[in-house]
Amino acid sequence: MLSFFHSTIQERKKFGKIGWNVSYDFNDSDFRISLSLISLYLNKSIETGEEELPWATLRYLIGEAMYGGRVTDDYDRRVLNTYLKEFMGDFIFDTNQKFFFSQSDFQYVIPPDEAITKELIEVEIDKIPLFTNPNVFGLHSNAEIQYFSNSVKELWTNTLMM
What is the pTM of this model? Predict the structure, then answer.
């Protein structure tokens, strides 16, 4: 779930001002610290025998301190916290509820629990499309137009500089 969250907020950057109002430098250290934080809370819950995980606390720490510490725009903070609410909660253990991401030609799913191996995970990762539609991120399909326009401008600028 943290990997999907990290990749989602990274991919939104390619849509420029439509993806994030301000360009943020989310990086691997945010991911690693958040991962160790989740591990710490999971281990603590197992040791104390708690039935429910402290999802609200984890969402706050990750959304406001780890990743959110970089976010300066209020609307961007709302988007970041909305993603966290969609990714983190007891519902991820519910076998009847599918993962919320979907696209017309691809269904994003969490692999089944039985016999998860490294090879199965690699096969599932290879199924994920390389190019994602802006609808996956909750953006209008026109967001892609700006991305393609900026890519072409950058290509031509670099070609002329050569």
Answer: 0.77
